[in-house]
Amino acid sequence: MKLSSQNLGIESTEKKLSNALSSYPFLYEISLFFIGVSLSIILLGVIAHIASDNLKTLQNKSLSYFTCVLITWCLLFFSILGLSSNLYPSLFFSHSTWNNFILLVITIPALLLLLLSSFITRKNIKTLLLISLTLTTAELNNFKLKKEEKNNTTKRNVFIIGIDSLNINEIDNKKMPFLQSFIDKSNYLPITYTHIARTFPSWITILTGNYPITNKARLNLTDFNQINLKKTLPYYLKAAGYVNYYIQDERRFNNIDERLYFDKIIGPPATAAEFLLSKVVDFPLVTLASELKFFNLFMPHIINNRAAWVTYSTEKFNKKIEQNILNTDSPIFSAAHFTLPHWPYKINKKTDGIDSDYNKYLKTLSIVDEQIESYFAILNGKGLLENALVFIVSDHGESFSRESDIPDNKNPEIINLAGHGTTIISNSQYRTLLSFGHIKNGEVHKFKNVKPMLNYALSDITPTIIDILNLNVTEKFDGMSILKVKEQRSIPLESSLQPMFNSKGTIDIDGTIQQNSYLFEVDSLGKVVVKEELYQRAVISKQRGIIFDKWQISFYPEHDNKIYITDLEKKVLYNDSDFSDIYLKKELIKKLCNHFNSEIITANITPCINSDYVLSNSQKAL
Question: How far is it, in rounded angstroms, from Cα 556 to Cα 544?
Fold first, then answer.
């Protein structure tokens, strides 16, 4: 069954948010945002009034009131457009004409002088002081007068650091020197897979140690009501006395929050309102106002939000991390995910002028490498790396529809799709980074008895952490402690929903939203989640596969339920009818059927239903 707009009953994007108006958190967030917008407009009006009033007084009323108002508003207009064009050149209203140094040097000091002249004219002083005090107090709120004390816990701090959309073939000393340096010093597992190449399923797998079919997170924005939140790493660590942080600079499709037993979330809102309100970023006044802490309380959707890439700054986001991670006597667990390498591969100023998506992507890899190095420096400066267990991972890879992104094959039905989660035969999409070590007094130490050339998966991370920390957890996991893996295991794979692509081969945003809009709804917390009644229909349409040793079997429902077998070492894909090793084929089909046993009938997994499948599809090879 192919998942499409027709069989999901999609009609319009507007219907997607039809139930949002009945969600109190959604309405509250929208209202708060527009209060912030209103206050920024009022502030602008008050500034204009003070400046024009002072100008009129200083001119001994030689200028008319209208002229003073006109001059003031011209100064404000050019200041706002000039400043926004300078800080955010990719905004809709930004232009190189406004980004003029001389213009800024004239307009901004002129406005400041007009405002400060209140102390000469003796007018509007109280109003000016009130505005200054309010804005300054909010800015100073993040400055700590007391120095943080050293972390005195005897337990190891635990840090999982994730990188979005990282194609592991691009890691080298030139593009990602810090990451390469960590890999060289730590336990690096080069053959590691995600079970579903999407952020939310990957992170739920990381934090549960279970396969998606077990933890129930099969799609982005899966309803938390389907997940057993107490069978998670944050829950176990919290019970052991840890303070838990979750950090992510773009949470639109990965709405992990306090419900997963995190004590503090650092990042933009993960709400339905964020989808809408972040679009306001193109209005210069609102964007400039959001830079101020006072207005950011009302409008946290625009600054430090990777989804609003036109304003995003890795330096500012890391500063936010530094201000919010507190060093206490309790051990710390932090799961951080940096999303810059995700499509559209853009960031404010730093990717301007780069011609292709692929070259932009490579640039974002270098930038995120610097961001992670900065994050390490923050943790080290707080004394949190004196005794720490550190994992650096990726949630999935990234494909650019190159020949190297899929195995060699002669099948015209195989489409080389870009992105991630679109086709399970693409190692570029499903191979992930997994490198870990124990940091003691700034030095990275490897663990012994790790077999690096076996296959691993993101589901092995939680069991490994519990094993190393020797936590009293009796839960059985699908994954295994990496320290105890001695032989090859079956690793299941699933596809996700496919985006729509335009004629240029890039993602069609409007088309994708239109196609998938009716799949989602806004829940009682103001979060976007997959509709319960459509969730199973979406799951049925998935590609399914198993990796064992150097072999992968892949089931494609959109290809009339065909299976393909890939030799991962030779990077060659075979049609099932062309694969001559009948015994191996039977074993791979058996592993596929065993893992997806509960879905054989509903997903119509033909090789598992028809006992004669192997024989009937092997005649050509024989």
Answer: 7
- Mean pLDDT, the chain, as a whole number? 90
State the virtual CA torsion across 167, 338, 264, 274 in degrees, nearest 10: -110
Contact in structure between 310 and 90 (CB atoms under 8 Å): yes
Q: Provide the pLDDT for residue 453.
A: 96
Alpha helices by DSSP H, 59-97: 65-87
- The residue type at 160: I
Q: What is the CATH number of the domain that holds 190?
A: 3.40.720.10
Residue 539 within any structural domain of the chain: no
Which tokens go with 138? 């909010």
Asked if 37 and 44 touch (Cβ cutoff 8 Å), the reply is no
Angle at 396 between CA 604 and CA 325, to 5 degrees: 130
Distance CA 96, CA 81 (A): 10
Q: Residue length, the chain?
A: 622
Number of domains in the chain: 1
Task: Report yes or no on 154 lying in a domain.
Answer: no
Residue 193 and residue 432 in contact, taking contact as beta carbons nearer than 8 Å:
yes
Residue 409 has a CB neighbour count (10 Å cut-off) of 18
**Does some domain include residue 66?**
no
The CA distance from 213 to 197, in Å, is 14
Query: How many angstroms separate the CA atoms of 85 and 101, rounded?
Result: 11
Query: Higher-confidence residue: 143 or 427?
Result: 427
Is residue 105 included in any domain, yes or no? no
Q: How far is CA 405 from CA 409, 415, 575, in A?
A: 12, 11, 18
Q: Would you place residue 13 in the very low, low, confident or very high pLDDT band (cuts 50, 70, 90)?
A: very low
What are the φ/ψ torsions at residue 617 (nearest 5 degrees)?
-105, 15
What is the model's pLDDT at position 11?
40
N-term to C-term CA, the chain: 31
**Which range of residues forms the domain containing residue 481?**
162-268+304-496
Is 530 strand, coil or helix?
A: strand
Residue 508 contacts residue 499 (beta carbons within 8 Å): yes
Quick one: which of 283, 290, 240 has its CA closest to 269?
A: 290
